[in-house]
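User: Hi! I'm working on a homework problem where we have to compare a predicted structure to a textbook description. Could you give me the structure for the chain below?
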Amino acid sequence: MFSTAQETQPLLKLSSSLLDHRKQEDYFSTIQTRYEAFARNLEARIEDGDPLAGKMATLSVEQHVLGSTTSSMRKVPRAAAITTASTELNMITMAMRKLREAIVATKRNDTFAATAYLFIVRTAIIIGHSESYHPALLHLINRPHRVIPISRAEEKEIVCYFLLDLACRQRDFATAFQVGRAYKYRSMRFDRVMRALVHGDWVLFARAKRGADLHEQHLMQWADERMAGHALQCMGKSYLSLPKNYVEQSTGMRWEELKEAKKLSWTLDDHTIVIRQVRKR
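Assistant: Happy to help. Predicted structure tokens:
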């Protein structure tokens, strides 16, 4: 944890000497230790029933670091605790960036570089920080003459993440198709995701997301709000009312947040959401 300035300092003070390979490895170990400590602390607080910890676990790093003013953030109590978590996550992402830049500067293409890049990609995807995982993904995808040693399974994993980022976050479907064909990437799940995004099929998207692994689900979250909009349009055109839990499960948002975020005129009657009132004759 980063509870004091003295404890946080070691993550950043090595930046001037990170051109040394041994220093890079020591720095990487420090990042891993700090991230694992933060994750364990957050998990323990969730298990203890801390509602703040549960809320923080669902928020992206952008919301923590940039101080989002969305309704879900405004409803979270104990702002000082959120600031602490923001500082911890911000410190971790800054440290990962410094390490990545040091590896690039030293043109390191050994096993350590592969391990560090994979850690940065996986960690940054989980905490939702595209500024950290996207450059690392690009470097692994375009690694010079394939000199960075990663296995075939790891290469397939990286290509999958890159394609999902293109489709879900960047909405660049054409490039996603081109890259998939160039790397001969075949996945029924990815095909379903692409079909769902292109056609606005929110039911297919939800099914594909349920079958995805943790990292893939986090990348697909970039499209959640867009697919929720498609779901609401379909519901609004097709139904007079729907069960509250069905609407929440279909959109991935609580009714209170959904109503405020989407400016819905729908009303709640007990456990039923009334979309349109039936006119009495």
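For your comparison, note the following. The longest strand covers residues 241-243. The longest helix spans residues 21-47. Good luck with the assignment!
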